[in-house]
Amino acid sequence: MDLGRLNQIIDYNEKLAYITVQPGVTFRQVYEYLQSVKSNLFLSVIGGSPEASVIGNTLERGDGSGPLGDRFAHVCGLEVILPTGECIHTGFSRFGHAKTTRLARWGVGPYVDGIFTQSNLGIVTQMTVWLLPMPKYYQTFSCRVNDYTGLARLLDSVQTLILQGTIPESCFYIWNCYKVIAKEGRYPWKLTQGKTPLSLQEMKGIEPWFAGGSLFANSQGEGLAQRQIVAETLPQELQPVDFAQTNPEEDGLGVPDDENIRSTYWRKKTKIPHDLNPDRDQCGVVWLCLLFPFDGQQIVEALEVIASTIKLYQFEPNLGMNCISARTVRLFIAIMYDREVSGSDTQAMDCHDQLLEWLLAAGYIPDRLGIQSMNSLPPTQDDYAQFMSSLKQNLDPENILAPGRYDCF
What we know:
GO molecular function, one term: D-lactate dehydrogenase (cytochrome) activity
InterPro entries: Cytok_DH_C_sf (IPR016170), FAD-bd_PCMH (IPR016166), FAD-bd_PCMH-like_sf (IPR036318), FAD-bd_PCMH_sub2 (IPR016169), FAD-linked_Oxase-like_C (IPR016164), Oxid_FAD_bind_N (IPR006094)
Order of helices and strands: EEHEHEEEEEHEHHHEHEEHEEHEH
Protein name: 4-cresol dehydrogenase [hydroxylating] flavoprotein subunit
Domain FAD-binding PCMH-type: 1-134
Number of domains: 2
CATH architecture of the largest domain: 3-Layer(aba) Sandwich
Mean pLDDT: 95
Keywords: FAD, Flavoprotein
Shape: globular
Radius of gyration: 22 Å
């Protein structure tokens, strides 16, 4: 491997809709590259920084907005450096002359790509990521619900629409009111006269949820048919649902931005800088990522416990959901605070630990972990830990690569 070639886009194919990248290539770089070659393809973007690594996000099994949002499900051809110094290529890429190196996930023989995600078994130095063409007819729609009953009905109807293929996977999100407000990055200090936490329930009598989705079609006729199906399937109490036919890029499809980063300044009293840097500016964020069965009643019952626990610790329940498949919903919990306030770090971590304790006991295991949670997974009921320990011993006998990552070995 030529270490001088890291941080590069090394292959791109418009017809077969893929791009091959090396470590350090960011979502912004991919977007700018596609713009420079006048590509009609796009990569689903994350809610984090445009400077985030495409490979890094994929290996954490992160998700994006738009079709193919389940990132790891749409990559192949990994190049991996093992802790012993050996280099392997996965799938068909281990055969130098294979025509489908960039096009097929499984290759032939055992599929090993997955052991290099959320792990410390190797360093991925190359990956092919699949892209999608911009839709010919693109629509967005939005609605809101004011209570948990309406939210449960909305979730169940959306599950039906995703299962039948009307709404693509990763193309429907639901944010609660605090997440929507926090995106502006400004706590209403004057309105609350300096009081925390903000309670819209006390001020307005409701804590609404805001939802939105995207529809992809090849023609206006197909798009209008999709719109009709959505309107007829969503619960009547959600009507009217607002639909808009729009330019996908103008709507942000495939365009990375740092708007969500502003939410990390939520509890700060200083002016938000143009050059966002939450670490430098002592913004506090403790994060949890959970996967729920796509069942409206089950989800809202959990949300009620989660929201009440966060409020108990004097924070706003900043909650967002991404419908990543027809069977699961990913919930993002963000505890936002100002690290310059004495005791706030401890308070936020206590809140996090209380939430995680309840979630684990209830059977809701995180599908991604922050560094604060790496040793929090419950014991397994089988020999999984021993199996992973054996892999670690064989692939990294000196235990030099990220010891303790995901507490598996």
